[in-house]
Specification:
heterotrimer; A alpha/beta; B mainly alpha; C mainly alpha; A: alpha/beta; 6-stranded mixed β-sheet; C: mainly alpha; 14 helices; 2 strands
Chain lengths: 274, 334, 351
């Protein structure tokens, strides 16, 4: 049985008086790519942030490799788990190298601020994200995709087994979305990192995720391999949308095509027979 | 919103006006020299040159009128600034208008030997206008245009700059300090009625302008892009708002010196009573502003009797807890 | 030659990365600081040759010059230097913490709190003849206490499950305005002579500094300067936002408190000895950023030197340009600071 990287036990989360997540139990397997999906405001970002200990639970707990995160020091957690929040901002004038260096923070001390290991990890991170040539450029002068790669390089330099990303591809155009997701896929494949992310695009989630978690009604609605879990009934339940689920012609993973309006240029007979 | 339907709102508004009139009367009667209602009326109908009549006519009446006019103007200016900058903590004071006016007055006294209290008006006006324009301009520079944080900090910086210069001038010219110190504190006491009258056209214009532009402000508060999409000429409206604020705040500063917090606090109170429709908020803020300043002025007479606390200090003392409460609550009430 | 130099000592127990360009600029600034120090010491009612100044600094030199330099000039200029360093470093820390380049010590109301304390001190401890009943040596302590109390107050009021930068700034501005009102109130209530005294102090000046001041100020400044530079790495991660900082294992709230304490200590001491010198905390970190970039390990020391130079120059101008009148340095830091600030914003408008 695969070990669980992260587990939640009866996790309840709220903003002020409003309950967002209600006694949610979840197991996230190690070494896989897990993607949270769900409608707007269903709490998937909130869930991710509380796993990253950015949000204190109302009740219940999160276990990181079997240990309760409430009992671990924030630095210890930082050595095992990295988080890239939504729309991060870097101060003006910060270079890519300076940003990626920050990823080493949990491994450094007042006196040891640039050990050989620090140097190696930073260089590796820059190589993995193909940013060596850009390391002296300022972060704000990069394109959207490059900037996101720089932030990911920072989490890579942090050298953790688990990487959490909150909507890493929102606001990026298609090319850059694929660039980022391909990079994360490679990191999982080659370096065996556990990746947990929130994605908006269901089809991309199906293509890249080993494990999909659908959130609805403050709980986990369904969880599992996309090809087992994603079907019309789930999409109707979770997103409230009627659709056809077919097979992606390139990858074979589930491809969701919504009903609705649009120019239908199919021959009527073909449309009827599907 | 406390008053939900139109008839309730009218009721609330009229009650507020009555309270204001009541306080104006109280302001005329109460003080170190207590007079009575009878005496007050007599001073109008049967003026006989007695001490009390003199006090009422030359000291109390102007004071009450000035407090009302200034309070109303500052409150309305506050509403306009808060909507314009989408900053619930905006006010003429925070944007350096007071500091600019102060500097103009002090500069005139020290560098150009102007001693005429009347002249202070015009100068304060100009100083206020210059400061406002600078702050607005500076806050708009940079990537994101006019953000609340940048505007606030730009205002603080400009205020600090003008303050420093003002202080510098006062260091060099000690005699001037004596002349302007009281003015700098902000007070409705000891001002002549003529001062108010000379500034009244401007303030009056400001009031009328504010009421007329209320409808457009409702649209503007939905966001720049949405407003443009609905056909509003946002550029013109913003300039108009700016001019009205300068008329109101500049006029107030010219008459009474820098008085803070009225412009920040009153709009919030108004909104919690009557909702966010500017066509109600602006007039009611005016009335509530007058009430606030009248009340502050009356209590200023009693706290350190027989001497007086300048009303600008009173409003600061009353206003700060409110200000902090609003700041803690956050921008979106979250 | 690479852009960086790895420094690893004691078998890796001590390791740093040094940006060569930043190190170079820092060295140049160090020289400039020394130059300004020497020249400034030489200028005054009696002009002293810079070389003589250097001789005196190293223990020799003619008796007359030695007397003037050591009794009058040196204390004042050393205080100016320390004050500049303190304000610049505090400003840099605050800008990093608040994540806004327009933040400065003046904005948090701390200087205002000190002003109230000073004016209150002058008001309460004076008898009917306007003479101080208590030694003026207590004034700095009062200022420092005022600064500290306000800093705590602002922090406490801004606390709501933690302190966010914007809340800190807004509440700081509110408190600062209140402080100004109270200061004016006290100035009005007291005799005019005090108002004048208070006003001079509020404007910010190093006039009247003596060796006792120096003995207190120098160790204090140096200690907190070192602590600040060591804490630079926590500012670096705070600049990336609370969430990223927490994700990297930073204890954001604790560090924020610590940084605020360091800033207050630096601001409090400079306000105690030199009054309300403004804009240095705003300008110096900015200029430093333009020279050496945004990493605080380089930014803070550079900022410190720039601040020191600024205040020494402002004091120099104030002393000499309107001779025999002494214009407080604070006027010139504002005079240089505000236009520079506006120029800054003008320049970044297309960024």
């Amino acid at each position: 049985m695969k070990m669980n990287a992260i587990e939640t036990k009866k996790l309840s989360l709220s903003y002020g008086e409003t309950l967002i997540i209600n006694e949610l139990d979840l197991k996230i397997p190690k070494g896989e790519i897990t993607v949270f999906i769900g409608g707007n405001g269903c709490g998937k970002s909130t869930l991710l942030r509380s796993i990253a200990r950015l949000l204190k639970p109302k009740s219940g707990g999160v276990l990181l490799e079997g240990k309760a995160i409430a009992k671990l020091s924030t630095k210890e957690i930082a050595k095992k788990m990295a988080i890239l929040p939504q729309s991060p901002s870097a101060p003006e004038g910060l270079t890519v190298l300076q940003l990626v260096k920050q990823g080493r923070y949990p491994h450094q001390t007042w006196l040891k601020q640039w050990s050989e290991e620090d140097e190696k990890k930073v260089n590796d991170a820059l190589k993995a994200t193909r940013l060596e040539g850009l390391k002296e450029r300022t972060v704000d002068s990069l394109s959207g995709g490059q900037r996101q790669r720089a932030w990911i390089a920072m989490t890579l330099a942090q050298d953790t087994d688990i990487i959490l990303l909150d909507e890493p591809t929102t606001y990026l155009d298609m090319t850059h979305q694929i660039e980022i997701l391909d990079l994360l896929f490679e990191l999982n494949e080659k370096k065996k990192r556990t990746v947990v992310m929130v994605l908006h695009d269901l089809n991309l989630a199906c293509r890249y995720a080993h494990n999909i978690v659908a959130i609805k009604d403050k709980k986990v609605f369904a969880q599992g391999k996309p090809e087992y879990v994603i079907n019309c009934s789930l999409v109707k339940n979770v997103f409230g949308m009627d659709c056809e689920v077919t097979m992606d012609p390139l990858f074979g993973t589930p491809l969701c095509i919504p009903y609705g309006k649009g120019r239908c240029i199919l021959d009527k007979a073909v449309a009827m027979n599907g | 919103m406390l008053l939900k339907n139109t008839s309730l709102k009218w009721f609330g508004f009229i009650s507020a006006v009555l309270v204001m009139l009541l306080l104006m009367c109280a302001s005329v009667i109460l003080g170190y020299t207590d007079t009575s209602w009878r005496t007050a009326i007599d001073s109008f109908t049967n003026y006989n040159g007695s001490n009390e009549h003199i006090i009422i006519q030359t000291v109390r009446l102007p004071r009450a009128l000035i407090a009302s006019a200034v309070g109303a103007s500052l409150a309305i200016a506050g509403v306009l600034m808060q909507t314009l900058t989408k900053n619930p903590l905006a006010s003429p004071g925070i944007f350096g208008i007071n500091a600019g006016a102060g500097f103009a007055v002090v500069a005139a006294v020290t560098l150009f030997s102007v001693h005429d209290l009347q002249a202070f008006n015009g100068l304060a006006f100009i100083g206020a206008a210059v400061a406002a324009i600078s702050v607005y301009g500076i806050g708009s520079f940079g990537r994101e245009g006019l953000t609340p944080m940048k505007l606030t900090l730009a205002g603080a910086a400009i205020a600090a700059m003008f303050s420093s210069f003002t202080q510098g001038l006062l260091v060099v010219d000690e005699a001037a300090l004596e002349q302007v110190l009281f003015w700098l504190a902000g007070s409705v006491q000891g001002r002549k009625l003529e001062t108010l009258v000379s500034v009244l056209p401007f303030i009056g214009l400001g009031w009328v302008g504010a009421v007329l532009i209320a409808g457009k402000m409702n649209i503007l508060s939905m966001g720049e892009d949405v407003a443009k999409g609905l056909g509003l000429n946002t550029g013109l409206v913003k300039i108009a708002i700016g001019i009205i604020v300068i008329l109101l705040a500049g006029g107030s500063v010219a008459v009474a010196g820098p008085i803070g917090f009225v412009g920040i606090v009153v709009p919030h109170i108004t909104r919690s009573i009557i909702g966010i429709d500017h066509r109600w908020v602006i007039p009611l803020s005016g009335v509530l502003g007058a009430i606030l300043l009248l009340a502050a002025d009356i209590s200023a007479r009693y706290i350190l009797m027989p001497s007086e606390v300048p009303v600008g200090v009173m409003t600061a003392i009353i206003g700060t807890p409110f200000f902090i409460y609003i700041a803690r609550r956050g921008f979106n009430g979250r | 030659m690479s852009k960086y130099k790895n420094v690893r000592l004691f078998k890796g127990k001590l390791s740093f990365l040094i940006d060569r360009k930043a190190a170079f600029i820092f060295t140049i600034l160090l020289l400039v600081t020394f130059l300004v120090f020497v020249i400034s010491t030489g200028i005054g009612d009696m002009k002293i040759n810079p070389l003589t100044v250097v001789k005196v600094l190293f223990g020799g030199g003619p008796e007359m010059e030695k007397l003037i330099i050591t009794s009058f000039r040196l204390p004042r200029i050393i205080v100016a230097l320390m004050v500049g360093i303190s304000l610049a470093v505090a400003g840099g820390i605050l800008q990093g913490m608040i994540r806004n380049p327009l933040a400065s010590p003046d904005v948090l109301g701390i200087t205002g709190g000190a002003a109230v304390a000073v004016v209150g001190f002058l008001a309460f401890f004076s008898d009917s003849n306007n003479a101080l009943t208590v030694s003026i040596a207590w004034l700095p302590l009062a200022a420092f206490l005022g600064a500290g109390v306000v800093a705590f107050l602002v922090y406490f009021l801004a606390w709501k499950n933690g302190v966010s930068p914007i809340r800190l700034v807004l509440i700081g501005i509110g408190i600062s305005t209140l402080m100004q009102a109270l200061t004016t109130l006290m100035m009005i209530m007291g005799p005019i002579y005090q108002a004048s005294q208070a006003n001079i102090w509020i404007t910010g000046t190093v006039y009247g500094s003596n060796w006792k001041n120096v003995a207190t100020l120098v160790p204090w400044t140096v200690i907190f300067l070192i602590i600040a530079i060591v804490a630079a790495r926590t500012i670096n991660i705070q600049e990336l936002g609370d969430e990223v900082a927490t994700g990297l294992g930073g204890k954001v709230q604790k560090q924020r408190f610590l940084l605020l304490m360091i800033s207050t200590a630096l601001i409090g001491s400079s306000v105690a000895f030199a009054g309300g010198i403004g804009f240095v905390g705003l300008m110096a970190p900015h200029m430093a950023r333009r020279l050496v970039g945004s990493s605080f390990g380089a930014l803070l020391p550079t900022s410190a030197l720039l601040g020191g130079i600024l205040v020494m120059v402002a004091d120099l101008i104030g002393r000499t340009m309107f001779s025999p009148l002494e214009v407080p340095a604070g006027v010139f830091t504002a005079g240089i600071g505000a236009p520079y600030f506006i120029y800054l914003l003008f320049k970044t408008r297309n960024a």
